[in-house]
Amino acid sequence: MFPPEILAAYLTAVMVVVIAPGPDNLLAISRGLSQGRAAAALSSVGAGLGIMVHTLAATLGLALVLQTSPAAFWVVKAAGAAYLVWLGFKAIRSRNLVSFVPASRQPLWRIFATGLLSNVLNPKPGLFVVAFIPQFVSVARGPVHVQMLVYGAIFALLTAVIFTLLGSFAAQLSGWLERRPRAVAAANIGAGATFIAAGLSILALEPRR
Q1: Which of 25, 26, 116, 165 could form a disulfide with 46 if both were Cys (CB 3.0 to 4.6 A apart)?
Q2: What number of other Cβ atoms are within 10 A of residue 163's Cβ?
Q3: pLDDT in tens, 161-200
Q4: Percentage of the chain with pLDDT > 90?
């Protein structure tokens, strides 16, 4: 069902996609800087579960609804864009996405929820799953839904693991950054601007035909 050469090509493609800069891995890195490895890991696991939500939606055919219904696609697009823009403005205004002040630290459940929602409410991963995973699926190799779910699970697992590693590496830099308040402020502004740009870019998305 999963020929080695197809699986190797898929793993390579997924690694490139996961490592590419985006709001989800930036969020994991920010959590690592602010609250350490555990926070980075929870944010990363949330992002990985978000990939599985998109995979399940695509497998069950819900993604087809978003592709064929302009109204449904617009609602999802608007919600995702609004959430990312809100995260961006919050980071710029409160400067607490990267913060070493104990009172500014967020509970771990909220960090997990933010990591999950930032992925689930972003239609880009959903459209990517719909366009990307089927390229490696073949009816001749077995049940399509099983292949979709397995490929999605691999994507989700690699997302969680790689984001956790990035966040853990960032946690090692927290001591250096804590002594440089201007760098912390710049990190929050940069992260906020990235989230806002990602949110605005969602508004330009069109459903794939």
Answers
A1: 116
A2: 29
A3: 999 999 998 888 777 776 777 777 777 787 778 778 877 7
A4: 21
